[in-house]
Amino acid sequence: MILPKGITGFGKPITNVKNLSTKTLLDELFQRIQKNHYFKLKEFKNPENSTNYYKLILLDNKNNELKILINSIFPFYCGVIDYEWMQLQFVDLPQKVHSMFGELFFYTPITVLNQKVNIENIVNLDKYEINQINYWESQTIGEIIFNGYD
Fold this sequence. Notes:
The chain is 25% helix and 19% strand. It is of the alpha+beta class. It has one domain (23-145). The longest helix is centred in the first third of the chain and has 13 residues, at 23-35.
């Protein structure tokens, strides 16, 4: 996966690229969740000072929690076991979640998130992003897309 410039939340602003993880897209997602009969929104949190992702918890119809991250710059989402800062453990999400996210967001599967980073993955990133990746010693695609850089 070639990561897009700006994915880390650092560096120069991206020009001519629409921020797809805006409040408008999130509002549309929340409407879909409300209309859905299988999931309920339990919790939603905005990115913190040291994270570049939104956090949400969905409850399925058996009250099982699904923890989901959404990148704050680009519309990538994934499942996690827990939200522990800089120690994210990614998990795959059930198909019913993907149908609800639909075309609004792009699912990032665990096989991609756990891939080791190589030079081809980061070719589009600017020097500020590369500096953050090196400083925080990010090893995987997931550690870059859903990071705790501050």
